[in-house]
Amino acid sequence: MPDHIRFILRHAAYGFVIALSFVGMLLAFDVAGLWHLVTHTAEGPIAVVMLVVFCTITFGSAQIGYKIMTMGDDDDDHRGRRDPVFSLTAVPRPVRIRTTDARR
Questions:
Q1: Domain residue spans in the chain?
Q2: Which residue among 8, 39, 63, 78 is least enclosed by CB atoms within 10 Å?
Q3: 78: exposed, middle or buried (C-beta count within 10 Å: 0-12, 13-18, 19+)?
């Protein structure tokens, strides 16, 4: 199996584990009465499966995206900074101040 496919499947599996943990905590802490709804309706198991599937898509995609974005080269000297397009140098300029007499 190619390395990039193995990479994506491995991190999608991490997302699945995170999704199972998340749904498990939602049910365990009975957020918004979810445990009661799931256990007292006929469609409860279908709802749990759908919740796990959609959370897996969300967390798996986030995990894959995170790992791809952090795969930078080891020889980067910039450490996340871009080269400046122009340099900002402070040049002193004389400023003429006009005062008005408030007593007039």
A1: 3-69
A2: 78
A3: exposed
In angstroms, how far apart are the furthest CA atoms of the chain? 88
The owner of tokens 């897996």 is 56
Cβ atoms within 10 Å of 29's Cβ, excluding its own: 10
- Hey, what are 51's tokens? 């919740």
Q: Measure the CA–CA gap between 72 and 59, rounded to whole angstroms.
A: 22
Q: What one-character DSSP code corresponds to residue 51?
A: H
Amino acid identity, position 78: H
How far is the C-alpha of 8 from the C-alpha of 43, rounded, in Å? 32
Nearest CA among 32, 24, 91 for reference residue 52: 24
